[in-house]
Design a protein that fits this description.
alpha+beta, DNA primase, PRIM domain, 25 helices
């Protein structure tokens, strides 16, 4: 610990702590290496409960077991909730991020809205003997707190115990407020209505109505008020805090001693809600330096009765109905003061002096300090794509064709063991053809087997990242840190807020990947393909989605030729002098046959020819395992670019420079069946049709089919009549069955059989009907 815990203890009054909290302080002191005497000295401040030697005995019983360790962070947080501000303004830097911090408030101000250093005292004027109306005080008090028919509890008899006076009994609890007010108005002598009291110690009254059968919490009929009282602050400070905090006070009474008794609206529907609201109220007061007597929480508690004398001092009514009117109104006000949100900004005031936009990290895709999500199915090479991105940012090169700004990168690896991760970076570097002159820009945090929920990980990541000040943090994969149900929008919004926290506190971009939901995704928009809640797709500033393009034999033939040519050229570069390339024309470098003929004509030695053939075979084998992908972008800060097609040839993604993938369509799923639409270039008939017309037919079928339930055989039945009913929706005009039939026949992706529309690749299913 870099904070002196003894300094923190000066802000914590042990008399306000429960037994468990007191023990937690002792356990934390022992854990941090302090002595039992430190605990003893602090505990002695609670003169009522302190017993010499008890701390040392308890100290010896403390054992640190898994799950029960209490650290110094607990004491620091207790002190901060009571006004302690660490050196540096409470930014958290001196406090270890791994220590136990229990506060769970929603704003960075931790509920503190009153600055004690600037709080001005507010005097409480004691009424003169001639100007004081004791009976009037008590009548106004009863009228402010009770309905006429409600029973009021009070005690006027007292006994002396341990040099102090306390109530002698439960007192009276069967008389109504109406009766008491009537009696006071009839006779100015309070004793005639309430009974005589001892002017040395005063009298007491209960502030919540009773049922007339007793004075326990169970006898309270309306959980209307709570008592706020403190003996630690001067009366003038107490009065100022009550008013600065806008507490919904129904009645404020001077106790005739060291405190004010504030009867505060709680307005709870039952005892459970009463306890919760009182706990929150007490915490709010203590966070603002108003240290309260916690024994006053009970709804049946006695308070000081106004209008009577106490040891020569007046117990008088200071005020009624101050602050907010109700607990709910106060709570809304308090949270508004504590929301830590910026004020409105007038557009006209900044119109001619706009703030500069954050510079791009990946030009055309992502700005520095913003968030990016890469979504895709399994085996899309998402991890490799993120490593390629880390290298491109570190080296200041291009990623998938987009130029990157050079800077530091932190790559958080949750999935691979350390050697595999490091070797993968080296493999990608080599495959990208980059020497690695700026590889010192990459920091890798290997957390396989140590991943945790993101809300726990974020502060640890932030603390480390602040030291290196990266331009980007890449998290791979994010499912390892998921907090909550990924299908819950509320829980995923909370989860995604952690990315904002990292971006804001570190001042960097956060890039992460997530997987697709199950099944073929070609029929969905890019934003709807990621698994779980739509929050995933809508939260980041840039969404890049990868969807697989099914390759045919013709594609693989093309890839193998290209790979073979590359392998031959590489071999010849190593075997022959530089001038050999001048012997061939541009087209020859694209022909495996021409290159092999050139090798033979050069009469290369047998071992060199064997090496070339082996290299060609290896390259063609590798090309046979290539996959193809289409990248679709959904951007918040930049204009949407055209889809980009790439090959994933382990271990890197390579752009499709030939345009061979342009007309390939991804697979779609309907009713559990995978449908592979025909390429736009297949067949002379479809080449004559526009993209929009053909896509409209496919979209109509896909949407209608997705909304239908399977029949008893598991089949999805779409008829021409279904398209006719929704023709205006999909084709912009009403159409007849023959016109729909003509459109279907023109493109060939779908066929009509026995009145049913089915994909061309799918086996026919018939029921003997015709036009449907």
């Amino acid at each position: 610990m870099s904070i002196d815990l003894k300094e923190c203890l000066q802000h914590i009054d042990p008399s306000f702590l429960g037994y468990k909290e007191w023990c937690d302080v002792g356990m934390a002191l022992k854990h941090e290496g302090y002595s039992p005497e430190d605990w003893e000295k602090w505990s002695a401040r609670d003169s009522r409960r302190y017993h010499p030697g008890e701390c040392r005995k308890k100290w010896e019983t403390f054992r640190e077991e898994t799950g029960s360790i209490v650290t110094g962070g607990t004491i620091v947080q207790m002190a901060k909730e009571r006004g302690f501000v660490p050196v540096g303004g409470g930014s958290g830097e001196p406090l270890g991020w791994d220590e136990a911090i229990s506060y769970s408030g929603k704003s960075s101000s931790n509920g503190k809205i009153v600055d004690g250093n600037w709080l001005e005292s507010k005097e409480v004027a004691t009424p003169s003997d001639a100007g004081w109306d004791p009976r009037g005080d008590l009548v106004r008090y009863l009228e402010a707190l009770f309905q006429p028919a409600e029973c009021v509890g009070y005690v006027v008899e007292s006994i002396e115990k341990d040099d102090r006076y306390i109530p002698a009994n439960k007192g009276v609890y069967v008389r109504t407020a109406g009766e008491l007010i009537e009696g006071l108005k009839r006779d100015p002598d309070i004793g005639m209505t309430f009974g005589d009291y001892n002017q040395v110690c005063g009298a007491w009254i209960r502030f919540n109505p009773l049922d007339g059968k007793g004075v326990r919490n169970a006898n309270v009929t309306s959980f209307r008020y709570a008592l706020i009282e403190s003996d630690d602050l001067p009366i003038e400070k107490q009065n100022a805090l009550v008013r600065e905090l806008e507490l919904p006070v129904a009645a404020l009474v001077h106790s005739g001693g060291k405190s004010l008794h504030a009867i505060v609206h709680i307005d709870a529907k039952d005892y459970t809600e009463y306890r919760n609201r009182v706990d929150f109220l007490y915490r709010a007061c203590e966070k603002n330096g108003f240290m309260l007597d916690k024994q006053n929480r009970n709804p049946s508690r006695l308070s000081r009765m106004p209008g009577v004398m106490r040891a020569g001092n007046k117990q008088f009514l200071v005020d009624t109905n101050i602050g907010k009117k109700t607990y709910q109104e106060w709570l809304e006000w308090y949270e508004e003061q504590d929301d830590n949100l910026p004020d409105f900004e007038n557009l006209g005031a900044v119109w001619d002096n706009m703030p500069p936009l954050a510079p791009p990290l990946i030009d055309g895709l992502l700005r520095q300090g913003h968030k990016m999500l890469i979504s895709g199915p399994s085996k899309a090479g998402k991890s490799f794509a993120q490593i390629e991105m880390a290298i491109a940012i570190a080296e200041g090169t291009r990623w998938m064709g987009w130029p990157c700004t050079s800077g530091k990168v932190v790559y958080v690896n949750f999935e691979l063991d350390r050697p595999s991760c490091l070797h993968r970076f080296a493999d990608v570097y080599r495959a990208m053809g980059i020497k690695g002159e700026r590889k010192d820009n990459i920091d890798i945090w290997n957390l396989r087997g140590q991943s945790m929920q993101l809300d726990k990980l974020a502060p640890k990541l932030i603390r480390r990242a602040k030291k290196t000040k990266p331009l980007a943090i890449i998290l791979d994969p994010i499912y390892k840190t998921l907090t909550g149900d990924e299908n819950s929008a509320e829980q995923m919004a909370i989860f995604c807020n952690q990315f904002d926290r990292v971006c804001s506190e570190v001042g960097c971009s956060v890039i992460y990947c997530h997987h697709h939901s199950k099944g073929a995704q070609g029929g969905k928009k890019a934003m709807d393909r990621a698994s779980g809640s739509g929050v995933f797709a809508r939260d980041p500033d840039a969404l890049l989605d990868l969807i697989e393009l099914p390759l045919k034999d013709s594609h693989y033939d093309h890839l193998k030729v290209r790979a073979a040519c590359k392998a031959i050229i590489s071999c010849l570069d190593g075997m022959l002098s530089k001038g050999w390339r001048d012997d061939l024309g541009p087209d020859d470098f694209l022909s495996k046959h021409q290159l092999m003929e050139y090798c033979k004509n050069r009469s290369l030695p047998a071992e060199q020819m064997a090496a070339i053939e082996e290299s060609v075979a290896s390259a063609e084998h590798h090309a046979g395992h290539t996959t193809a992908w289409r990248i679709s972008c959904t951007l918040r800060e930049f204009e949407k670019p055209d889809d980009r097609d790439v090959y994933f040839s382990w271990p890197v993604h390579l752009p499709d420079t030939s345009g061979a993938l342009k007309d390939v369509r991804p697979e779609i799923e309907v009713g559990g069946r995978i449908i592979q639409p025909r390429d736009k270039s297949d067949g002379s008939q479809k080449e004559k049709k526009t993209k929009e017309e053909r896509q409209a037919v496919i979209d109509a079928y896909t949407v209608i089919a997705s909304e239908k339930n399977p029949d008893e055989h598991g089949n999805i039945i779409v008829r021409i009549g279904d398209m006719v009913e929704r023709s205006e929706e999909f084709f912009g005009k009403e159409m007849t069955k023959p016109a729909i039939r003509k459109k279907i026949d023109k493109f060939g992706d779908l066929i009509v059989k026995n009145g049913r529309i089915i994909p061309a690749e799918q086996q026919e299913i018939g029921d003997g009907s015709d036009e449907g």
